[in-house]
Write a structure and sequence with these properties.
About 0% of the residues lie in helices and about 45% in strands. The protein is mainly β and about 130 residues long. The mean pLDDT is about 95.
């Protein structure tokens, strides 16, 4: 069992930045591949970015490339999403997810492949 707790969301103007955190209390965080997803009102939850358990490989949705950076600290049991140049269309609830994935199939962008989810943190970007 992995507990995930997101933080760092908030209200920001277009062009601004936010840094989301996903903390995983306990000792098994480093075993898991991690990802960020987001869900805007009336839309399905969509993949944003993923990072392998080693932290050495990352993958981004087209919407995040060049603006967002995913990272993790396996000593602090925490994953991050640095979001720059935010746009109003980035407004959503952001969720972190964890799963023990087959490296041959990575990157994994499907929601069903991840076993554990946080409660979400709201990001609102005003125009």
């Amino acid at each position: 069992q992995v507990q995930l707790v997101e933080s760092g969301g908030g209200l920001v103007q277009a062009g601004g930045s936010l840094r989301l955190s996903c903390a995983a209390p306990g000792g098994t965080f480093s075993w898991y591949d991690m990802a960020w997803f987001r869900q805007a009102p009336g839309k399905e939850r969509e993949f944003v970015a993923a990072i392998r358990w080693t932290g050495r490989r990352t993958y981004y949705a087209d919407s995040a490339k060049g603006r967002f950076t995913i990272s993790r600290d396996n000593v602090k049991n925490t994953m991050y999403l640095q979001m720059n140049s935010l746009k109003p269309e980035d407004t959503a609830v952001y969720y972190c997810a964890a799963g023990r994935l087959n490296g041959d199939n990575w990157p994994v962008t499907g929601r069903s492949e991840y076993d554990y989810w946080g409660q979400g943190t709201q990001v609102t970007v005003s125009s």
